[in-house]
Amino acid sequence: MSDRKSETDSDLEFDSQPAELVENFFRHESARMVATLTRTFGVHRMQLIEDCIQTALVEAMRSWRHGVPKNPAGWVHRVAKNRVLDALRRDATHQKALAFAHLDQQSTDRMVDESFEESQIEDSLLRMIFVCCHPLLDPGSQVAITLKTLCGFSIDEIASGLLLPSETVKKRVQRARKKLAEADISTDLPRDDELHSRVSAVHNVLYLMFNEGYSASGGESVVRDDICEEATRLCYLLCHSPFARPDSKALLALHVFHAARLGGRMDDSGSSVLLEDQDRSLWDQRLIAIAKHWLQLSRTNTPSRFHFEAAIAQEHCVAESFDATDWTVIVRCYDRLIDLYDSPVYRLNRAIAIAHNGQPQQALEQLLSLKSGGQLESYQLLDCVLGRINEMCGNIDVAIQHYESFLASSIAPHQRRLVEARLASFDRR
Amino acid sequence: MARYMFLYRESPEQLQHQPSPEEMQQVMQLWTNWMQQGAQAGWLIDGGDALKPESRSVDASLEVSDTATIEAKEVVGGYSLIEAASLEEAIEIAKGSPMPHSGGSVEVRLVGH
Fold first, then answer.
1. Is B113 exposed, middle or buried (0-12, 13-18, 19+ CB in 10 A)?
2. What are the pLDDT digits (tens) for B29-44?
3. CATH number at residue B45
4. CB contact under 8 A, B25 and A65
5. Interface pTM (ipTM) of the complex?
Protein backbone atom coordinates (compact mmCIF):
# COMPACT_ATOMS: atom_id res chain seq x y z
CA MET A 1 0.00 0.00 0.00
CA SER A 2 2.71 2.45 0.97
CA ASP A 3 4.57 1.97 -2.32
CA ARG A 4 1.61 3.13 -4.33
CA LYS A 5 0.98 6.06 -2.05
CA SER A 6 4.50 7.36 -2.62
CA GLU A 7 4.01 7.02 -6.34
CA THR A 8 1.10 9.42 -6.02
CA ASP A 9 3.18 11.89 -4.08
CA SER A 10 5.99 11.88 -6.64
CA ASP A 11 3.44 13.06 -9.16
CA LEU A 12 2.90 16.26 -7.24
CA GLU A 13 4.61 18.53 -9.74
CA PHE A 14 3.15 21.86 -8.88
CA ASP A 15 3.80 24.91 -10.95
CA SER A 16 5.17 27.95 -9.20
CA GLN A 17 2.29 29.89 -10.75
CA PRO A 18 -1.01 28.15 -10.06
CA ALA A 19 -2.46 26.73 -13.26
CA GLU A 20 -6.08 27.24 -14.21
CA LEU A 21 -8.31 24.20 -14.44
CA VAL A 22 -10.29 23.85 -17.63
CA GLU A 23 -13.99 24.55 -17.41
CA ASN A 24 -16.05 21.69 -15.97
CA PHE A 25 -12.85 19.80 -15.07
CA PHE A 26 -14.33 18.11 -12.00
CA ARG A 27 -17.62 17.19 -13.65
CA HIS A 28 -16.05 15.79 -16.78
CA GLU A 29 -13.23 13.96 -15.00
CA SER A 30 -15.80 12.41 -12.71
CA ALA A 31 -17.65 11.06 -15.76
CA ARG A 32 -14.48 9.85 -17.45
CA MET A 33 -13.36 8.03 -14.33
CA VAL A 34 -16.73 6.37 -13.69
CA ALA A 35 -16.74 5.17 -17.30
CA THR A 36 -13.17 3.90 -17.19
CA LEU A 37 -13.32 2.20 -13.81
CA THR A 38 -16.75 0.68 -14.44
CA ARG A 39 -15.47 -0.80 -17.66
CA THR A 40 -12.59 -2.40 -15.75
CA PHE A 41 -14.41 -3.50 -12.59
CA GLY A 42 -17.98 -4.02 -13.74
CA VAL A 43 -21.37 -2.31 -13.57
CA HIS A 44 -22.17 -4.07 -10.28
CA ARG A 45 -19.43 -1.99 -8.59
CA MET A 46 -20.64 1.36 -9.87
CA GLN A 47 -21.71 2.63 -6.43
CA LEU A 48 -18.34 1.78 -4.89
CA ILE A 49 -16.56 3.34 -7.84
CA GLU A 50 -18.57 6.56 -7.64
CA ASP A 51 -17.90 6.84 -3.90
CA CYS A 52 -14.16 6.39 -4.44
CA ILE A 53 -14.17 9.02 -7.18
CA GLN A 54 -15.96 11.48 -4.93
CA THR A 55 -13.28 10.94 -2.25
CA ALA A 56 -10.51 11.39 -4.80
CA LEU A 57 -12.01 14.62 -6.13
CA VAL A 58 -12.42 16.06 -2.64
CA GLU A 59 -8.80 15.15 -1.93
CA ALA A 60 -7.77 16.91 -5.14
CA MET A 61 -9.74 20.01 -4.22
CA ARG A 62 -8.06 20.20 -0.79
CA SER A 63 -4.54 19.71 -2.19
CA TRP A 64 -4.92 21.98 -5.17
CA ARG A 65 -5.92 25.02 -3.18
CA HIS A 66 -2.20 25.59 -2.88
CA GLY A 67 -1.49 25.10 -6.58
CA VAL A 68 -2.77 22.90 -9.38
CA PRO A 69 -0.39 20.13 -10.51
CA LYS A 70 0.94 20.04 -14.08
CA ASN A 71 -1.21 17.07 -14.99
CA PRO A 72 -4.37 17.39 -12.90
CA ALA A 73 -6.21 14.60 -14.74
CA GLY A 74 -3.34 12.14 -14.23
CA TRP A 75 -3.16 13.12 -10.56
CA VAL A 76 -6.81 12.51 -9.85
CA HIS A 77 -6.92 9.30 -11.94
CA ARG A 78 -4.12 7.86 -9.84
CA VAL A 79 -5.75 8.75 -6.55
CA ALA A 80 -9.12 7.36 -7.67
CA LYS A 81 -7.52 4.16 -8.91
CA ASN A 82 -5.77 3.68 -5.57
CA ARG A 83 -8.99 4.27 -3.67
CA VAL A 84 -10.80 1.64 -5.73
CA LEU A 85 -7.96 -0.87 -5.46
CA ASP A 86 -7.76 -0.33 -1.70
CA ALA A 87 -11.48 -0.96 -1.40
CA LEU A 88 -11.32 -4.06 -3.57
CA ARG A 89 -8.43 -5.47 -1.57
CA ARG A 90 -10.90 -5.86 1.26
CA ASP A 91 -13.43 -7.49 -1.06
CA ALA A 92 -13.24 -11.28 -0.88
CA THR A 93 -15.24 -11.88 -4.06
CA HIS A 94 -12.90 -9.69 -6.02
CA GLN A 95 -9.84 -11.45 -4.59
CA LYS A 96 -11.31 -14.82 -5.55
CA ALA A 97 -12.02 -13.60 -9.07
CA LEU A 98 -8.44 -12.38 -9.37
CA ALA A 99 -7.05 -15.73 -8.23
CA PHE A 100 -9.37 -17.54 -10.61
CA ALA A 101 -8.12 -15.47 -13.54
CA HIS A 102 -4.52 -15.86 -12.36
CA LEU A 103 -4.25 -12.13 -11.94
CA ASP A 104 -2.62 -10.31 -9.06
CA GLN A 105 -3.07 -6.84 -7.71
CA GLN A 106 -0.21 -5.51 -9.82
CA SER A 107 -1.66 -6.67 -13.08
CA THR A 108 -5.00 -5.12 -12.12
CA ASP A 109 -3.12 -1.94 -11.39
CA ARG A 110 -1.55 -1.99 -14.86
CA MET A 111 -4.87 -2.79 -16.46
CA VAL A 112 -6.42 0.34 -14.93
CA ASP A 113 -3.48 2.49 -16.04
CA GLU A 114 -3.94 1.30 -19.60
CA SER A 115 -7.64 2.01 -19.49
CA PHE A 116 -6.87 5.60 -18.45
CA GLU A 117 -4.98 6.23 -21.67
CA GLU A 118 -6.59 9.02 -23.65
CA SER A 119 -7.58 6.84 -26.61
CA GLN A 120 -9.36 4.40 -24.29
CA ILE A 121 -11.33 6.99 -22.34
CA GLU A 122 -13.56 8.01 -25.26
CA ASP A 123 -14.31 4.35 -25.89
CA SER A 124 -15.20 3.82 -22.23
CA LEU A 125 -17.52 6.84 -22.30
CA LEU A 126 -19.29 5.44 -25.34
CA ARG A 127 -19.76 2.09 -23.61
CA MET A 128 -21.11 3.90 -20.59
CA ILE A 129 -23.65 5.77 -22.74
CA PHE A 130 -25.02 2.43 -23.85
CA VAL A 131 -25.13 1.20 -20.23
CA CYS A 132 -26.96 4.28 -18.92
CA CYS A 133 -29.43 4.23 -21.83
CA HIS A 134 -30.05 0.50 -21.48
CA PRO A 135 -33.60 -0.49 -22.52
CA LEU A 136 -33.95 -2.26 -19.17
CA LEU A 137 -34.46 1.19 -17.58
CA ASP A 138 -37.46 3.46 -18.00
CA PRO A 139 -36.80 6.81 -19.74
CA GLY A 140 -36.91 8.83 -16.50
CA SER A 141 -34.24 6.64 -14.94
CA GLN A 142 -32.16 6.64 -18.11
CA VAL A 143 -32.05 10.43 -18.11
CA ALA A 144 -31.33 10.62 -14.36
CA ILE A 145 -28.48 8.13 -14.36
CA THR A 146 -26.99 9.61 -17.54
CA LEU A 147 -26.90 13.05 -15.92
CA LYS A 148 -25.42 11.62 -12.74
CA THR A 149 -22.86 9.25 -14.22
CA LEU A 150 -21.93 10.67 -17.60
CA CYS A 151 -22.26 14.37 -16.86
CA GLY A 152 -21.15 14.43 -13.22
CA PHE A 153 -24.14 16.39 -11.88
CA SER A 154 -25.15 15.98 -8.24
CA ILE A 155 -28.63 14.76 -7.32
CA ASP A 156 -29.66 18.29 -6.26
CA GLU A 157 -28.38 19.83 -9.48
CA ILE A 158 -30.27 17.28 -11.58
CA ALA A 159 -33.41 17.93 -9.53
CA SER A 160 -33.20 21.68 -10.05
CA GLY A 161 -32.45 21.20 -13.74
CA LEU A 162 -35.38 18.88 -14.35
CA LEU A 163 -37.73 20.67 -11.96
CA LEU A 164 -38.19 17.48 -9.94
CA PRO A 165 -37.94 16.85 -6.18
CA SER A 166 -34.43 15.70 -5.13
CA GLU A 167 -35.93 12.62 -3.52
CA THR A 168 -37.44 11.53 -6.86
CA VAL A 169 -34.14 11.92 -8.69
CA LYS A 170 -32.27 10.10 -5.94
CA LYS A 171 -34.69 7.17 -6.12
CA ARG A 172 -34.45 7.00 -9.90
CA VAL A 173 -30.66 6.92 -9.81
CA GLN A 174 -30.56 4.30 -7.08
CA ARG A 175 -33.15 2.14 -8.79
CA ALA A 176 -31.28 2.39 -12.09
CA ARG A 177 -27.96 1.39 -10.50
CA LYS A 178 -29.59 -1.52 -8.73
CA LYS A 179 -31.32 -2.77 -11.86
CA LEU A 180 -28.16 -2.56 -13.95
CA ALA A 181 -26.14 -4.34 -11.26
CA GLU A 182 -28.71 -7.08 -10.69
CA ALA A 183 -29.04 -7.78 -14.40
CA ASP A 184 -25.24 -7.76 -14.54
CA ILE A 185 -25.28 -5.53 -17.62
CA SER A 186 -21.94 -5.66 -19.36
CA THR A 187 -20.01 -2.67 -20.68
CA ASP A 188 -19.51 -4.45 -24.00
CA LEU A 189 -20.63 -2.48 -27.01
CA PRO A 190 -23.98 -3.63 -28.43
CA ARG A 191 -24.01 -6.68 -30.68
CA ASP A 192 -25.11 -6.34 -34.31
CA ASP A 193 -28.52 -7.88 -33.73
CA GLU A 194 -29.43 -5.38 -30.99
CA LEU A 195 -27.51 -2.44 -32.39
CA HIS A 196 -30.46 -0.70 -33.99
CA SER A 197 -32.63 -0.63 -30.89
CA ARG A 198 -29.73 0.25 -28.59
CA VAL A 199 -28.69 3.26 -30.69
CA SER A 200 -32.32 4.39 -30.91
CA ALA A 201 -32.57 4.17 -27.13
CA VAL A 202 -29.53 6.45 -26.83
CA HIS A 203 -31.11 8.91 -29.29
CA ASN A 204 -34.30 9.02 -27.25
CA VAL A 205 -32.44 9.75 -24.02
CA LEU A 206 -30.35 12.51 -25.60
CA TYR A 207 -33.45 14.00 -27.22
CA LEU A 208 -35.36 13.91 -23.95
CA MET A 209 -32.42 15.28 -22.01
CA PHE A 210 -32.00 18.20 -24.37
CA ASN A 211 -35.70 19.01 -24.37
CA GLU A 212 -35.94 18.85 -20.58
CA GLY A 213 -33.00 21.20 -20.28
CA TYR A 214 -34.22 23.48 -23.06
CA SER A 215 -37.80 23.87 -21.96
CA ALA A 216 -36.73 24.66 -18.41
CA SER A 217 -33.70 26.73 -19.33
CA GLY A 218 -33.51 30.43 -18.78
CA GLY A 219 -35.19 30.10 -15.41
CA GLU A 220 -33.41 30.48 -12.10
CA SER A 221 -31.14 27.47 -12.50
CA VAL A 222 -28.03 27.69 -14.62
CA VAL A 223 -27.83 23.89 -14.64
CA ARG A 224 -30.43 23.78 -17.39
CA ASP A 225 -28.21 25.27 -20.05
CA ASP A 226 -25.52 22.84 -18.89
CA ILE A 227 -27.93 19.94 -19.42
CA CYS A 228 -28.45 21.02 -23.04
CA GLU A 229 -24.71 21.34 -23.47
CA GLU A 230 -24.14 17.86 -22.05
CA ALA A 231 -26.77 16.28 -24.30
CA THR A 232 -24.99 17.88 -27.24
CA ARG A 233 -21.57 16.72 -26.03
CA LEU A 234 -22.73 13.11 -25.70
CA CYS A 235 -24.44 13.23 -29.08
CA TYR A 236 -21.20 14.55 -30.56
CA LEU A 237 -19.36 11.60 -29.03
CA LEU A 238 -21.87 9.21 -30.61
CA CYS A 239 -21.58 10.95 -33.99
CA HIS A 240 -17.82 10.45 -33.94
CA SER A 241 -18.15 6.75 -33.18
CA PRO A 242 -18.65 3.87 -35.61
CA PHE A 243 -22.22 3.62 -34.29
CA ALA A 244 -23.32 6.95 -35.74
CA ARG A 245 -26.34 6.72 -38.03
CA PRO A 246 -27.81 9.43 -40.25
CA ASP A 247 -30.41 10.14 -37.57
CA SER A 248 -27.66 10.54 -34.91
CA LYS A 249 -26.23 13.34 -37.02
CA ALA A 250 -29.64 14.90 -37.58
CA LEU A 251 -30.19 14.86 -33.81
CA LEU A 252 -26.86 16.60 -33.30
CA ALA A 253 -27.80 19.20 -35.92
CA LEU A 254 -31.11 19.76 -34.11
CA HIS A 255 -29.34 20.30 -30.76
CA VAL A 256 -26.86 22.74 -32.25
CA PHE A 257 -29.55 24.76 -34.09
CA HIS A 258 -31.41 25.15 -30.80
CA ALA A 259 -28.23 26.00 -28.92
CA ALA A 260 -27.48 28.72 -31.47
CA ARG A 261 -30.68 30.51 -30.48
CA LEU A 262 -30.24 30.27 -26.68
CA GLY A 263 -28.78 33.78 -26.56
CA GLY A 264 -31.90 35.54 -27.84
CA ARG A 265 -34.54 33.80 -25.77
CA MET A 266 -34.38 36.05 -22.71
CA ASP A 267 -34.34 39.79 -22.29
CA ASP A 268 -32.26 41.62 -19.68
CA SER A 269 -35.00 41.33 -17.07
CA GLY A 270 -35.08 37.54 -17.50
CA SER A 271 -38.43 37.18 -19.23
CA SER A 272 -38.99 35.06 -22.33
CA VAL A 273 -38.89 36.73 -25.70
CA LEU A 274 -41.21 35.36 -28.40
CA LEU A 275 -39.50 34.08 -31.53
CA GLU A 276 -41.06 36.92 -33.49
CA ASP A 277 -39.58 39.55 -31.15
CA GLN A 278 -36.12 38.04 -30.80
CA ASP A 279 -33.06 40.00 -31.82
CA ARG A 280 -31.62 37.66 -34.44
CA SER A 281 -28.21 39.28 -34.25
CA LEU A 282 -27.86 37.54 -30.87
CA TRP A 283 -28.06 34.14 -32.51
CA ASP A 284 -24.74 32.34 -32.80
CA GLN A 285 -23.87 32.23 -36.51
CA ARG A 286 -20.90 29.94 -35.89
CA LEU A 287 -23.17 27.33 -34.27
CA ILE A 288 -25.72 27.71 -37.07
CA ALA A 289 -22.97 26.92 -39.58
CA ILE A 290 -21.91 23.85 -37.60
CA ALA A 291 -25.49 22.63 -37.36
CA LYS A 292 -26.02 23.08 -41.11
CA HIS A 293 -22.90 21.04 -41.70
CA TRP A 294 -24.19 18.15 -39.57
CA LEU A 295 -27.58 18.27 -41.26
CA GLN A 296 -25.78 17.96 -44.60
CA LEU A 297 -23.86 14.97 -43.30
CA SER A 298 -27.08 13.34 -42.10
CA ARG A 299 -28.62 12.99 -45.56
CA THR A 300 -30.40 9.71 -46.14
CA ASN A 301 -33.22 8.23 -48.19
CA THR A 302 -35.11 7.40 -45.03
CA PRO A 303 -35.20 10.60 -42.99
CA SER A 304 -36.17 10.34 -39.33
CA ARG A 305 -38.17 12.71 -37.16
CA PHE A 306 -34.89 14.29 -36.10
CA HIS A 307 -34.24 15.19 -39.73
CA PHE A 308 -37.53 17.06 -40.02
CA GLU A 309 -37.20 18.71 -36.64
CA ALA A 310 -33.71 19.85 -37.58
CA ALA A 311 -34.96 21.11 -40.94
CA ILE A 312 -37.61 23.20 -39.15
CA ALA A 313 -35.02 24.59 -36.74
CA GLN A 314 -32.78 25.39 -39.70
CA GLU A 315 -35.58 27.26 -41.43
CA HIS A 316 -35.98 29.52 -38.37
CA CYS A 317 -32.23 30.00 -38.02
CA VAL A 318 -31.63 31.10 -41.60
CA ALA A 319 -34.67 33.38 -41.99
CA GLU A 320 -33.58 37.03 -42.10
CA SER A 321 -36.53 38.04 -39.97
CA PHE A 322 -39.67 36.49 -38.52
CA ASP A 323 -41.72 37.77 -41.45
CA ALA A 324 -39.22 36.32 -43.93
CA THR A 325 -39.70 32.81 -42.47
CA ASP A 326 -40.76 30.29 -45.09
CA TRP A 327 -43.81 28.93 -43.29
CA THR A 328 -44.83 26.77 -46.25
CA VAL A 329 -41.66 24.72 -45.84
CA ILE A 330 -42.24 24.47 -42.10
CA VAL A 331 -45.84 23.31 -42.50
CA ARG A 332 -44.65 20.68 -45.00
CA CYS A 333 -42.00 19.45 -42.54
CA TYR A 334 -44.67 19.09 -39.84
CA ASP A 335 -46.83 17.11 -42.30
CA ARG A 336 -43.95 14.68 -42.82
CA LEU A 337 -43.28 14.52 -39.09
CA ILE A 338 -46.89 13.67 -38.33
CA ASP A 339 -46.80 10.93 -41.00
CA LEU A 340 -43.74 9.48 -39.28
CA TYR A 341 -44.56 10.01 -35.67
CA ASP A 342 -47.97 11.41 -34.86
CA SER A 343 -48.04 13.42 -31.68
CA PRO A 344 -50.36 16.12 -30.33
CA VAL A 345 -47.42 18.47 -29.81
CA TYR A 346 -46.41 18.19 -33.46
CA ARG A 347 -50.02 18.86 -34.46
CA LEU A 348 -50.13 21.90 -32.20
CA ASN A 349 -46.92 23.24 -33.67
CA ARG A 350 -48.19 22.61 -37.18
CA ALA A 351 -51.30 24.63 -36.35
CA ILE A 352 -49.09 27.53 -35.22
CA ALA A 353 -47.13 27.32 -38.49
CA ILE A 354 -50.40 27.25 -40.47
CA ALA A 355 -51.57 30.37 -38.64
CA HIS A 356 -48.36 32.20 -39.51
CA ASN A 357 -48.70 30.96 -43.06
CA GLY A 358 -51.75 33.17 -43.46
CA GLN A 359 -54.49 30.79 -42.32
CA PRO A 360 -55.13 31.59 -38.64
CA GLN A 361 -58.81 30.56 -38.88
CA GLN A 362 -57.90 27.09 -40.12
CA ALA A 363 -55.27 26.85 -37.39
CA LEU A 364 -57.81 27.78 -34.74
CA GLU A 365 -60.19 25.05 -35.91
CA GLN A 366 -57.41 22.45 -35.74
CA LEU A 367 -56.42 23.58 -32.27
CA LEU A 368 -59.96 23.46 -30.97
CA SER A 369 -60.47 19.97 -32.32
CA LEU A 370 -57.18 18.90 -30.71
CA LYS A 371 -58.34 20.43 -27.45
CA SER A 372 -61.75 18.80 -27.54
CA GLY A 373 -60.05 15.48 -28.26
CA GLY A 374 -58.43 15.89 -24.84
CA GLN A 375 -55.00 15.20 -26.23
CA LEU A 376 -53.37 18.34 -24.95
CA GLU A 377 -54.57 18.35 -21.37
CA SER A 378 -51.07 18.10 -19.97
CA TYR A 379 -49.70 20.69 -22.36
CA GLN A 380 -49.20 23.78 -20.22
CA LEU A 381 -48.74 26.27 -23.02
CA LEU A 382 -52.06 25.48 -24.73
CA ASP A 383 -53.89 28.54 -23.39
CA CYS A 384 -50.98 30.69 -24.36
CA VAL A 385 -51.09 29.36 -27.94
CA LEU A 386 -54.88 29.70 -28.12
CA GLY A 387 -54.54 33.27 -26.95
CA ARG A 388 -52.05 34.06 -29.67
CA ILE A 389 -54.02 32.42 -32.48
CA ASN A 390 -57.26 34.08 -31.40
CA GLU A 391 -55.41 37.37 -31.42
CA MET A 392 -54.37 36.67 -35.01
CA CYS A 393 -58.00 35.91 -35.89
CA GLY A 394 -59.01 39.23 -34.37
CA ASN A 395 -60.87 37.67 -31.40
CA ILE A 396 -59.21 39.87 -28.79
CA ASP A 397 -61.73 39.17 -26.00
CA VAL A 398 -61.30 35.40 -26.36
CA ALA A 399 -57.53 35.87 -26.50
CA ILE A 400 -57.56 37.78 -23.21
CA GLN A 401 -59.60 34.99 -21.58
CA HIS A 402 -57.01 32.42 -22.63
CA TYR A 403 -54.09 34.50 -21.44
CA GLU A 404 -55.81 35.01 -18.10
CA SER A 405 -56.46 31.33 -17.63
CA PHE A 406 -52.83 30.64 -18.57
CA LEU A 407 -51.72 33.04 -15.82
CA ALA A 408 -53.98 31.24 -13.35
CA SER A 409 -52.05 27.97 -13.83
CA SER A 410 -48.68 27.25 -12.27
CA ILE A 411 -46.10 28.49 -14.76
CA ALA A 412 -42.46 29.53 -14.77
CA PRO A 413 -41.80 33.17 -13.78
CA HIS A 414 -40.23 34.07 -17.12
CA GLN A 415 -43.35 32.87 -18.96
CA ARG A 416 -45.57 34.73 -16.54
CA ARG A 417 -43.76 38.01 -17.19
CA LEU A 418 -44.13 37.55 -20.93
CA VAL A 419 -47.88 36.96 -20.84
CA GLU A 420 -48.46 39.76 -18.33
CA ALA A 421 -46.70 42.15 -20.69
CA ARG A 422 -48.89 40.89 -23.54
CA LEU A 423 -52.07 41.52 -21.55
CA ALA A 424 -50.87 44.97 -20.54
CA SER A 425 -50.42 45.85 -24.22
CA PHE A 426 -54.15 45.28 -24.80
CA ASP A 427 -55.02 47.76 -22.06
CA ARG A 428 -53.02 50.42 -23.84
CA ARG A 429 -54.85 49.93 -27.12
CA MET B 1 7.87 43.60 6.54
CA ALA B 2 7.06 40.55 8.61
CA ARG B 3 6.19 37.03 7.65
CA TYR B 4 2.97 35.37 8.73
CA MET B 5 1.85 31.81 8.53
CA PHE B 6 -1.74 31.14 7.61
CA LEU B 7 -3.14 27.93 9.06
CA TYR B 8 -6.36 26.90 7.33
CA ARG B 9 -8.73 25.28 9.79
CA GLU B 10 -11.62 23.25 8.52
CA SER B 11 -14.74 22.86 10.61
CA PRO B 12 -16.33 19.43 11.17
CA GLU B 13 -19.29 20.54 9.01
CA GLN B 14 -16.93 21.47 6.22
CA LEU B 15 -15.19 18.10 6.46
CA GLN B 16 -18.54 16.30 6.41
CA HIS B 17 -19.91 18.20 3.42
CA GLN B 18 -19.80 16.31 0.14
CA PRO B 19 -19.54 18.98 -2.53
CA SER B 20 -20.71 18.29 -6.08
CA PRO B 21 -18.08 18.41 -8.84
CA GLU B 22 -19.51 21.77 -9.90
CA GLU B 23 -19.07 23.16 -6.38
CA MET B 24 -15.50 21.84 -6.28
CA GLN B 25 -14.78 23.67 -9.50
CA GLN B 26 -16.09 26.92 -7.99
CA VAL B 27 -14.04 26.49 -4.81
CA MET B 28 -10.90 25.81 -6.86
CA GLN B 29 -11.54 28.92 -8.93
CA LEU B 30 -11.76 31.06 -5.78
CA TRP B 31 -8.45 29.71 -4.46
CA THR B 32 -6.67 30.09 -7.78
CA ASN B 33 -7.85 33.69 -8.09
CA TRP B 34 -6.83 34.51 -4.55
CA MET B 35 -3.38 32.95 -4.86
CA GLN B 36 -2.82 34.72 -8.18
CA GLN B 37 -3.83 37.99 -6.60
CA GLY B 38 -1.26 37.37 -3.85
CA ALA B 39 1.48 36.54 -6.31
CA GLN B 40 0.79 39.72 -8.29
CA ALA B 41 0.51 41.98 -5.25
CA GLY B 42 3.63 40.41 -3.79
CA TRP B 43 2.25 39.32 -0.38
CA LEU B 44 2.31 35.62 -1.19
CA ILE B 45 5.71 34.14 -0.29
CA ASP B 46 4.76 30.49 -0.51
CA GLY B 47 1.36 29.04 -1.47
CA GLY B 48 2.15 26.24 0.96
CA ASP B 49 0.55 22.85 0.85
CA ALA B 50 -2.27 20.73 2.16
CA LEU B 51 -1.93 18.76 5.37
CA LYS B 52 -3.51 15.31 5.26
CA PRO B 53 -5.74 14.34 8.16
CA GLU B 54 -3.70 11.30 9.23
CA SER B 55 -1.42 12.29 12.10
CA ARG B 56 0.54 10.97 15.08
CA SER B 57 1.65 12.65 18.27
CA VAL B 58 4.76 11.84 20.25
CA ASP B 59 4.42 12.95 23.88
CA ALA B 60 6.94 13.58 26.69
CA SER B 61 7.13 9.91 27.60
CA LEU B 62 7.74 9.15 23.91
CA GLU B 63 4.29 7.62 23.77
CA VAL B 64 2.81 7.72 20.27
CA SER B 65 -0.87 8.41 19.80
CA ASP B 66 -3.12 8.66 16.78
CA THR B 67 -4.31 12.24 17.01
CA ALA B 68 -6.59 12.12 14.00
CA THR B 69 -9.00 9.68 15.59
CA ILE B 70 -9.31 11.43 18.95
CA GLU B 71 -12.48 13.28 18.08
CA ALA B 72 -14.12 15.04 15.22
CA LYS B 73 -13.06 18.64 15.64
CA GLU B 74 -11.44 21.37 13.59
CA VAL B 75 -8.56 20.11 11.49
CA VAL B 76 -5.69 22.13 10.08
CA GLY B 77 -6.00 21.31 6.40
CA GLY B 78 -3.13 23.36 5.01
CA TYR B 79 -0.85 26.37 5.33
CA SER B 80 0.60 29.29 3.34
CA LEU B 81 3.28 31.83 4.04
CA ILE B 82 2.61 35.51 3.43
CA GLU B 83 4.32 38.85 3.95
CA ALA B 84 2.69 41.93 5.48
CA ALA B 85 3.63 45.19 7.19
CA SER B 86 1.54 44.48 10.27
CA LEU B 87 -0.75 41.96 11.90
CA GLU B 88 -3.71 44.13 10.84
CA GLU B 89 -2.63 43.97 7.23
CA ALA B 90 -2.15 40.20 7.46
CA ILE B 91 -5.64 39.88 8.94
CA GLU B 92 -7.11 41.85 6.03
CA ILE B 93 -5.42 39.45 3.62
CA ALA B 94 -6.77 36.46 5.57
CA LYS B 95 -10.29 37.90 5.36
CA GLY B 96 -9.98 37.89 1.58
CA SER B 97 -9.08 34.18 1.46
CA PRO B 98 -11.77 31.70 0.41
CA MET B 99 -11.47 29.82 3.73
CA PRO B 100 -13.75 31.91 5.97
CA HIS B 101 -16.30 32.07 3.15
CA SER B 102 -16.62 28.30 2.99
CA GLY B 103 -17.22 27.67 6.68
CA GLY B 104 -13.60 27.35 7.84
CA SER B 105 -11.21 29.76 9.53
CA VAL B 106 -7.71 31.10 9.07
CA GLU B 107 -5.28 31.30 11.98
CA VAL B 108 -2.75 34.09 11.43
CA ARG B 109 0.64 33.59 13.17
CA LEU B 110 3.67 35.83 13.13
CA VAL B 111 6.72 33.84 12.08
CA GLY B 112 9.95 34.38 14.11
CA HIS B 113 10.28 37.33 16.50
1. exposed
2. 999 999 999 999 999 9
3. 3.30.70.1060
4. no
5. 0.90
